[in-house]
Each structure stands twice: as structure tokens, then as C-alpha cells.
Write a structure and sequence with these properties.
- The complex is a heterodimer.
- Chain A contains twelve helices and five strands.
- In chain A, strands 2-3-5-1-4 form a five-stranded mixed beta sheet.
- The longest helix of chain A has 57 residues, at 358-414.
- Chain A has helices spanning 3-14, 20-32, 34-51, 62-74, 89-118, 125-178, 206-219, 249-257, 273-299, 303-335, 350-354, 358-414, and strands spanning 193-203, 223-232, 235-245, 261-271, 336-345.
- Chain A is an alpha+beta fold.
- By secondary structure, chain B is an all-alpha fold.
- Chain B has two domains: 1-92, Rna Polymerase Sigma Factor, Chain: A (Orthogonal Bundle), CATH 1.10.1740; 99-196, Arc Repressor Mutant, subunit A (Orthogonal Bundle), CATH 1.10.10.
- In chain B, helix 4 crosses helix 7 (152-159).
- The chains are: A alpha+beta, B mainly alpha.
- Chains A and B meet through helix 1, helix 3, helix 4, strand 1 and strand 2 of A and helix 2, helix 3, helix 5, helix 6 and helix 8 of B.
């Protein structure tokens, strides 16, 4: 094991989360390496220091406040028990969207200014160059937002389908009751597997990797559930949680692996078929029970009976709701696999940063300078073209102005 | 002592006493968790309220896959993330402590106790500030492990991510914090301060 590998494992070493062979390797390494030994002791001291933080005393009135607030809510009916994790599109779109749209807006303004300055009938090759990126940008945006909407629609339609299948389920249940309550609900034969993958990559440049990652996600119709970027002494990093349609899971995963060196990779598949079938069956049974209770309710005579049956009904309905929610949640989890990606830039050698390539730097200066000169020249020429193209209007305008001025003077004199 | 599971069941049936017991049992942990994540005692108190409020609304959705504590922690981290996201969008300017170079607030009276006690409080204050500069996911991992004392498996359940992610986040958090503390090593690593 080299020093870097050792240091990456020191945290786990402290917690005793390594295998015996790994522990032995680290022990051996530390025996001989003073740097790593120092690293271990400072890390241990850090952890000890954090653990020695004293717990804060809870404000004395906190408990009362909590109880007051919840009991106020308790008097209103308790909401649906399991909620489907709502996707916050604003957040998913997030900062990238905002930067993107502001850049696009700037480009549009720039193009508009360029157009008015250059006037109609103006065509220099530079114009094409300036317009091109903005056009493709806005095309990109257009292509992207419907795609997002599509995903959102797909989500809702998936849930709506489930909802519309509810009365159907009741029909089946009713039929089964007629057939003397045979208890064999239709069993879904396909396996329901929640796929989760974890991928940790070392990459050259964060920006390119992030671009490629987002492209991959966009193409497969998935979305970024959360993202986080951070900077550390040894380079920048980012972590992403991606939700990918289950059938594109392997595809996307192998694409992501190509972004850099894979440091860590894990895939877990949680088979929830059993739970799904179980929950589904329980729901069907409860729906039948609900039917029966409704029938009983029709026959109930006394107020007391009605209240009793209604109490039961409420309980059954609450349970149905909670089970339906669970089914939806499972559908969502199974339909969209989760991939956790951690990107970490390769530590750059310090010498390269300190001694920039002299020749390259000069070339950059020269490029920047000539670029600005060209831009200035093109603006001057644009201005001249504009003046020439506006000349007819100026002539006509001047003519009208002269007539008006003369007429005004004549009118004044005649008065 | 009644177990959490029993209390949760009672809660579902509308037993208010059971809920009060759960609050009493966990408010300490939740308050400290939120405090370490948002670094502000007033916010922590508000967030703790919010956590229990949400827990109460969803208590029927608790299915006992994980322990009640884990479930509650999960709500708490989500509540804190929401809060931190809002806070990031509108920059809060603290009147108490306008720049990191200012002396930390909550400075104890010099007469309040012996010098070591005062020193210890400064160290803890600085330590909390250092923790607060960690990226939020790393901070959460560190707080759950080293302050709340969760196991790696419990953390994976709370954070709802694979064990590998938990390990790497925690490892990065500790190394980053260590680097920060090493820059002020005479403050943090002079032995007698935190052992005394």
C-alpha cells in the first residue's frame, strides 16, 4: 500500500471498519512511514476533539412549544401517511439553469445590439460567428425544457394510471366476492428490483466531466436529484445523485465509468417483489373489506351501529391510503434507479501552476490583443455601414424638418 | 420503559401522552443534531419543532423498517437541508458576528470561571465554526458519526445512500477538518485544553 491509499483508509482504520488484512497492511506501513504516522495521530486528535464537543442544553420551553404546535395540527385531520417524494424541479434545475438563462439573455441582447448597429443588409463573416453560439444555445434550451416537462408529465401520468386502476381493482374485488371470495389476486410476475449504484471517480477536469455527466443524464431521460460541488486543498469535487429510468441503468453506468478512473464502484439490487405482492394483496383485501363495511352500513339501523361501522371504515380507508402510497413509492423507486456519483479532480502538480508555459502565455496575450483589435475594427465598420444605410432616412428626415421649420417661421411672421 | 415501537403505535391511535414521551426522549438528540448542522441555537430550536411536527404528521407512514431514531434523524437532516438551501438563497448577515476575525460571540465573562474553562469554550466555538465550513453532506456525515455516535449502517439508512458513499463522505470530512484545525494547531492541539 502506498501513502495515498493508506491515508484514504485512515478514517475507517480509526473506526475499526477495515478487514484484518487491511489493518495489518496499514500497521506495517505506519511502522515505517513517519508522515503517515503523524497524519494518523492528527486525524485521531481531530476526531477526539469533535467527540469531546459537549451537547447543548435544550431550551426549557422547547418541549411545550413542540407539543402545542403538533396538537394544533392534531385537531385538523392527519394527512396522507406516506407521501411520494416530491421532486423539486426548481432545485433540480437550480443554479445551472439560472447561470444558463442569464448567459443566454446576455447573448440575445448582444445579438440584438449587433443587429441594430449593423443595420439591415449588413453581412460580415463576424456576424455569423457572433450569432452562432446564441442560436445553438437557445435551440439547446428549447430542446431541453420540453424534455423536462416530458419527464414531469410521465411522472404524473404514471401516478394517474395507478389511481385510475383503483376502481378496476375494486371491480375485481367485487367479482371475487361474488365467486365466494376466492383469495388469489393477480400476482405480478415481473421482478420488482430497486437498483442503486455508487460510483466514485477520479477525473482530470471537473467542468468537462460534469458536462458529460449531465449530457448522459439528459439523453436517457433521467434527472439530477441533487448535486453538490466543493473545493478542497487537493482539487475540486462534486457529488451527484442521479435518477435514471431502470432500463437505461447499465447503459448510463458504463457511460459514467468512462469519465475517469473508477476508484470505487458498487451496485446493489433490492428485490422488493415480495413486499410489492404482499402490499398489493393486503390492499385488495382491505378494499373488499371496505365494500363489505359499506354494505353493512346500508343495513345499520341505530346511530350507535352507524358510528361503529364508520369508525371501522375510517380505519380501513386510512390503511388503504397508506398502502397505495407505499405501492406508488415502490413503483417510483423501481422505475427510476438511483446512481450516486462522486467526482474528484486528480491532484495537480504544483510546479505546473507556479511556472506557466512562457511561450503559451505570450501567445495567449497576443491572441487576446488581436482579438480585441479585430472586435474594435468590426464595430467601427459596423458603425460606418449603419451610417450609410441610414443615410436615406436621414435625408428624408432632414427634408421634412426643413419644411416644418420654414412653415413655422412663415406662420410666425404672418401673425 | 415502553419501547419506541409501542409508543409509535399508541401515537397512531391518537395517544397524545405517547407522543409527548417520544418528544421528551428525542428532543435532546434532534436539537443537538440541528444545532451542529446550522450552527445557530435559535434556528436549531425552530428546526427541532419543525422536525417533530413533520414526524407527527407522517407517523402513520413509519413502517418500522428502520428504528424510530433513524427515521427521525432522516426527517431532521432533510429539514436542515431545506433550511440551509433557503439560507443560501438569501444571504443572512449576522449582526452578532460580522466577520470571522471578530471575537466569537458567546464569549463568557472573564469572571465566570477559571481561565481553562474560558479557553475551552473558545476552542469549542472555533471548532464549531470550522465544522460549519465543511460542505453540508460531509458535515452531516461527521455530525451523525462523531457527535451523535451512529454506526455506518445507521448513517446509510439516515442519509439513504450506499455504505460506500457514507465511508467516503466521512473520510473526506475528517481529513478536511483536520487540515483546517492544523492551521490553528496551537489552539486545538495543546493537550490540556480538552482533556482538562
Amino acid at each position: 500500500m502506498d501513502c495515498r491509499a493508506v491515508r484514504e483508509r485512515l478514517s475507517l482504520y480509526l473506526d475499526g471498519e477495515l478487514t484484518t488484512s487491511e489493518i495489518q497492511l496499514i500497521d506495517e506501513h505506519i511502522e515505517s512511514c513517519t508522515d503517515c504516522r503523524a497524519e494518523l495521530s492528527s486525524l485521531e486528535e481531530t476526531v477526539l476533539l469533535v467527540r469531546s464537543l459537549e451537547p447543548l442544553e435544550v431550551p426549557p420551553d422547547l418541549q411545550d412549544k413542540i407539543i402545542d404546535r403538533t396538537m394544533a395540527a392534531a385537531n385538523s385531520p392527519i394527512g396522507a401517511s406516506t407521501r411520494i417524494p416530491r421532486i423539486n424541479w426548481r432545485h433540480a434545475w437550480g443554479r445551472w439553469g439560472r447561470t444558463f438563462s442569464s448567459v443566454a439573455a446576455l447573448l440575445v441582447v448582444a445579438v440584438l445590439i449587433g443587429k441594430t448597429v449593423s443595420g439591415p443588409g449588413f453581412s460580415l463573416p463576424t456576424k455569423e460567428v457572433y450569432q452562432a453560439p446564441s442560436a445553438s444555445d437557445s435551440a439547446d434550451r428549447d430542446a431541453e425544457s420540453p424534455a423536462m416537462n416530458e419527464v414531469a408529465e410521465e411522472q404524473t401520468s404514471m401516478f394517474m394510471m395507478k389511481e385510475s386502476s383503483l376502481p378496476e381493482g375494486m371491480e375485481i374485488a367485487a367479482e371475487e366476492m361474488n365467486r365466494d371470495g376466492a383469495t388469489a389476486p393477480a400476482v405480478p410476475t415481473e421482478r420488482k428490483v430497486i437498483q442503486t449504484a455508487y460510483l466514485s471517480l477520479q477525473i482530470e477536469k471537473l467542468d468537462t466531466a460534469v458536462d458529460l455527466l449531465q449530457e448522459a443524464v439528459r439523453e436517457c431521460g433521467g434527472f439530477v436529484q441533487s448535486s453538490n460541488m466543493f473545493r478542497q486543498e487537493y482539487g475540486r469535487g462534486a457529488s451527484y445523485t442521479l435518477r435514471i429510468p431502470a432500463d437505461r441503468f447499465d447503459d448510463v453506468l458504463s457511460r459514467l465509468e468512462k469519465l475517469g478512473d473508477v476508484q470505487n464502484r458498487g451496485i446493489t439490487g433490492q428485490d422488493v417483489t415480495e413486499e410489492y405482492v404482499d402490499v398489493d394483496a393486503r390492499r385488495r383485501n382491505l378494499i373488499r373489506q371496505e365494500e363489505r363495511l359499506l354494505a353493512i352500513l346500508d343495513q345499520a339501523k341505530t346511530v350507535e351501529d352507524i358510528l361503529k361501522v364508520e369508525g371501522q371504515l375510517e380505519r380501513v380507508r386510512g390503511e388503504i391510503e397508506s398502502l397505495t402510497g407505499r405501492l406508488r413509492y415502490l413503483d417510483n423507486q423501481v422505475g427510476l434507479s438511483t446512481i450516486d456519483v462522486e467526482l474528484q479532480e486528480r491532484p495537480r502538480s504544483v510546479t505546473a501552476v507556479q511556472l506557466p508555459d512562457q511561450k503559451g502565455f505570450g501567445a495567449r496575450l497576443a491572441r487576446a490583443f488581436t482579438g480585441s483589435v479585430n472586435l474594435l475594427l468590426s464595430y467601427i465598420s459596423n458603425m460606418m455601414v449603419w451610417l450609410v444605410s441610414a443615410a436615406p432616412f436621414l435625408f428624408v428626415g432632414a427634408g421634412i424638418g426643413a419644411v416644418v421649420w420654414w412653415a413655422w417661421g412663415y406662420f410666425q411672421r404672418s401673425k | 420503559m415502553t419501547t419506541d415501537e409501542v409508543l409509535v403505535k399508541l401515537c397512531c391511535q391518537g395517544d397524545k401522552e405517547a407522543f409527548a414521551t417520544l418528544v421528551e426522549r428525542y428532543q435532546d438528540k434532534i436539537y443537538n443534531l440541528t444545532y451542529r448542522l446550522v450552527s445557530n441555537p435559535e434556528d436549531a430550536a425552530d428546526l427541532t419543532q419543525e422536525v417533530f411536527y413533520r414526524a407527527f404528521l407522517r407517523i402513520k407512514g413509519f413502517r418500522g423498517d428502520a428504528s424510530f431514531a433513524t427515521w427521525l434523524y432522516r426527517i431532521a437532516t432533510n429539514v436542515c437541508y431545506d433550511q440551509l438551501r433557503i439560507r443560501k438563497n438569501r444571504q443572512v448577515v449576522s449582526l452578532d458576528n460580522t466577520s470571522p476575525d471578530d471575537p466569537p460571540r458567546d464569549l463568557p465573562d472573564q469572571e465566570a470561571g477559571p481561565a481553562e474553562l474560558c479557553m475551552k469554550r473558545i476552542v469549542f466555538q472555533r471548532l464549531q465554526e470550522a465544522i460549519a465550513t465543511l460542505p453540508v453532506e460531509q458535515r452531516t456525515a461527521m455530525v451523525l458519526r462523531d457527535i451523535q455516535g451512529l454506526s455506518y449502517e445507521e448513517m446509510a439508512q439516515v442519509l439513504q445512500c450506499p455504505l460506500g458513499t457514507v465511508k467516503s463522505r466521512l473520510s473526506r470530512a475528517r481529513r478536511a477538518l483536520k487540515d483546517k484545525l492544523m492551521s490553528e494547531r496551537e489552539l486545538f492541539f495543546s493537550e490540556n485544553v480538552y482533556n482538562g
